[in-house]
Every structure is written in structure tokens, then in C-alpha cells.
Amino acid sequence: MPALEPLRPDHADALLAFELANRGYFARSIPDRGDAYFAGFAERHAALLAEQAEGTCRFHVVRDEAGELVGRVNLVDLADGGAELGYRVAESAAGRGIATAAVTEVCRLAATAYGLTALTAVTTVDNPASRAVLARTGFRLDREFLLGDRPALAHHRSLADLAE
């Protein structure tokens, strides 16, 4: 079972290594973050921590059983009981149920610890693995749209069944 940890300052080096090692893998199914993201990673990490401290976002890293950072799961733009879910898992960890377990856990946290009532998530049409994770974790297709120049799907999940 993977472990979810709230983002901390000491995650910066491991998170950058994770992003760099998987950059090409991620770019096959989602728009690339661009060179500026990596060049300014320390500042970006500090900005994420500031957003988390303000309560507008909740960022998490995912560790496998060996303690290796293999993913991240984020809730952004927390407002009016909702947030947008984003997640990514390392190529080396794909197909092992880590994304499903991490998304399941962050949905539980969203409902019980963060007081949210609904989540949205976006995936490109050509990312069947991500679409499957969303379906397995209770998200339902909401609409189709273009993400840049790529066909994409927006999904919605009520958290009412998870509230304590």
C-alpha cells in the first residue's frame, strides 16, 4: 500500500528528481511543463508550500513500500467545498495500483480532513490509464473539451459517501 504524505520543504530534491526522471513519460499523455518549470523548481516548490499554508491547495507525495517517491496527488483551488484533483505516478510504478490507491486515499482525506464535498479531474482522451483510475475511484464523466490542442475529458466526484 502506498503512503501519502503532505508536501514538505524536505521533499524538494526527491520531487525534482521524480519530475525529471519521468518528464518524457508524462509528456506522452499530458502537456509538458516546459524547461522553465525545472529551472525554477526551488521557487515553485516554495510557492506550492505557501499555497498549502494558505489552505487554497493540498499537495501530497506518494511513497511506495520501499519509501521511494513514486507519485504525487494534488488538490488545487479549494473553494466552495470543491477542488480539482491532479495526480501523476512514475513510469516505474505504473500498473501496480499505486495511482488508484493514492487517489482513493486523497478522496477520503478531501472529505474527512479537508471538508470538501466534491472533486473534479481532467485527463486527456488518449490517457486510458488515468481515465481508468478515475472510473475506479468513483469519478463520472462530466464533459469533453480541448486541453491545448488535445481532446480531454472532465470528470466529477461527489464525496458525500466518504464524509464522516
Task: List strands and helices in order, with pairings.
Elements: E1 3-6, H1 12-21, H2 23-27, H3 35-39, H4 41-54, E2 58-63, E3 69-79, E4 82-89, H5 98-112, E5 118-124, H6 128-136, E6 140-147, E7 150-158
Parallel strand pairs: 4-5
Antiparallel strand pairs: 1-2, 2-3, 3-4, 5-7, 6-7
Question: How would you describe this structure to a colleague?
Answer:
By secondary structure, this protein is an alpha+beta fold. About 35% of the residues lie in helices and about 30% in strands. The protein contains 6 helices and 7 strands. A 7-stranded mixed beta sheet has the order 1-2-3-4-5-7-6, sandwiched between helices.
Overall pLDDT metric: 93
Q: Helix proportion of residues, in percent?
A: 25-40%
Ranges with pLDDT <50 over ≥5 residues? none
Task: Return the structural class.
Answer: alpha+beta
Distance between the termini: 23 Å
> Order of helices and strands, N to C?
EHHHHEEEHEHEE
Count of DSSP strands: 7
Shape call = globular
Please give the largest β-sheet.
Answer: 7 strands, mixed
- β-strand percent reads 25-35%
The whole-angstrom Rg is 15 Å
In DSSP terms (H or I, runs of 4 or more residues), the helix count works out at 6
Going across the major beta sheet, what is the strand order?
1-2-3-4-5-7-6
Summarize the structure.
This protein is of the alpha+beta class.
